[in-house]
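Revision sheet: structure tokens.
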Amino acid sequence: MGLISDGDKKVIKEEFFSKLVNPVKIITFIGKEHCQYCEQLKQLVQEISELSDLISYEIHDFDTEKELAQKYRIPMAPAVTITQDGKDLGVRYFGLPAGHEFGAFLEDIVDVSRGETDLMPDTKEVLKSIDKDVQIYVFVTPTCPYCPAAVRMAHKFALENTLAGKGKILGDMVEAIEYPDLADRYRVMAVPKIVIKVDGEDKVEFEGAYPEKMFLEKLLTALE
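Predicted:
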């Protein structure tokens, strides 16, 4: 039985994948730990790829393909990185993009394919100049209606920085239920919870789906 209904497939093709321009490759890493939903993740990626000739996918074993995981800067699994035909853009999902996150997943595929976001020009200019290593964790749960907006913002920041030739920002959705140790480490009591790391150090933490300008201010505070 498919995860995506025929009706939803029709909507996805018409509303999302009709906008695709460049090939997208969804690279998925499956591990032995935290893999309660690994089969669903593999099935979801496969079903998505069947909806457009511009979408392909790969499934890899995180435990045996460490070199490839390192190439895509993947430190844990299950994980998905949405690439422009294999080019790492820093758009990642740690855990199954289910529930409300599924819409964000589709929108990310469109942005990656088109090589652009809807961020304001001033925001894009700031992101182009960032050359420190930044990692943005966005902790979510599938039932959180506000989480996709925070995930999308982190992914747009990563995408714009990479398109500018930097590749310094990583946007990471982290499904809190699938990664309880990480959620405990960052005291995730409510979602979305955002943690911004700079050069490997935790700098800023906040909760809520902030609008673009406020999210950028938090990033700039972390970089100070």
